[in-house]
Amino acid sequence: MCAEDGGRTSGGAVELADTRLKAITIGVRHHHGLAALDFAAELVTQVATALRKVDYEVTEIAADTLDAEQLGARIQAALKACTADDLLIVHVLSHGELGDGDSTVYVLGSDGIKNPVLDVDQWLKNLQLGGPRTLFLLDLCCAGTAARLPWQQRLDSERTRGWVVAACQRDQAAYDGRFSQALVAVLNGLRDNEFDVDPTVSHVPLTTIARALRQEVNRLTVEADSYGQTVTASLQDISSDPDLPFFRNFGHADNEHTRMRTGLHPALRPFLDELDEGLDARHFLDRAAGVGRLTDQLPGQLIGCFSGRKAQLIELSGWMDRPEVGGLCVVIGSPGVGKSALLGIMVCAGHKVLRRPTRPIWNEVERAPYQVDRLAAVHARQRRVPAIVRVH
């Protein structure tokens, strides 16, 4: 950690089944032969406050002096206080120094010496023997070394117990507690639900948090017209999707609307937010697209497989295009002949919100209705007449 001239400072545990959320934030001001980190105490307090807001039980340690043995003992105590089912965040604000051959990074205590008890590589290896799932947030020089250790890249992501988000790359310095300042801002934004995370997801992905930290550090660097530092995080196998529930999604809602969004084509989810749940847009979309839709083979594309039914498409579209005429139209037929698919095409093409995003599904059929501004579509299955009328 480096201090530039004019440097600035900018609850209780929650049970998730058997998982406790615990954190330790620790900062040291004075180090032998190195610049004082006068901002450490204030930033540690700010980080602790922000962590409590996102449901962590926090141990807060801001010390003028803490030698390597003392500092190491505090961190080991936090690790040993957790079970394998717990989640632990370790935030450290101090000086750092590379090991020989860039083999590791050492956190430095007030004595300024490299001590095995503060070897971050060893912390991570020890966790693989059964420690809690732990996220290290390291605000110190050369910290990125701990996010790019060779053995980590050979480890199955499902077996990983420790992750790192570092203030800078292995060959960079960290300045003015900028990473800790960014951490406070990101955690407060998390609590205020400022991240654009799908409400069906219960936790914010760690990759989202890491990107937000990098962006905020970059912003602070430009604002200070200072030397650059690049936030560096543990690599993730993009073919896997590990469950890393460190950060709760405060916009999560477990209701019929959000459950309906789950499994819906991502391109349509924003439009679904504008619809009444009585429409059940997913029902009509799936029927309109047809059985055997090609989206599994062509991810990211919305493709329909509807074909045939020329006469019925022409007749139904003509009826929908003349709402002022009124009258009742009933679609009947044996099971499996395509009644739901026909109605799906009508709803997707005619509904003012669904029409544009679902165009690839209905645009190639023989005939589709124009937009109907006063269209009410209700999926009536398992709804009694009063409920249908109420939705209508």
Give a structural overview.
- The N and C termini lie far apart (63 Å).
- The chain is elongated, with a radius of gyration of 28 Å.
- With 392 residues, the protein is an alpha/beta fold.
- Strand 5 (95-98) and strand 6 form a beta hairpin.
- The longest helix has 19 residues, at 206-224.
- The strands form two sheets. Strands 1, 2, 3, 4, 7, 8 and 9 form a seven-stranded mixed sheet that branches.
- The model is unreliable at 5-15, 270-279 and 291-300 (pLDDT under 50).
- 32% of the residues lie in helices and 12% in strands.
Strand content: 5-15%
Q: What is the CATH class of the largest domain?
A: Alpha Beta
- How much helical structure, as a percent, in the residues? 25-40%
Rounded to the nearest angstrom, the radius of gyration is: 28 Å
* CATH fold field value of the largest domain: Rossmann fold
How many distinct helices? Answer: 13
The CATH architecture category of the largest domain equals 3-Layer(aba) Sandwich
List keywords for this structure.
2 domains, elongated, two-stranded antiparallel ribbon, seven-stranded mixed sheet, 392 residues, Rossmann fold, single chain, alpha/beta
Question: How would you summarize this macromolecular structure in one to three sentences?
Answer:
32% of the residues lie in helices and 12% in strands. The protein is built from 13 helices and nine strands.
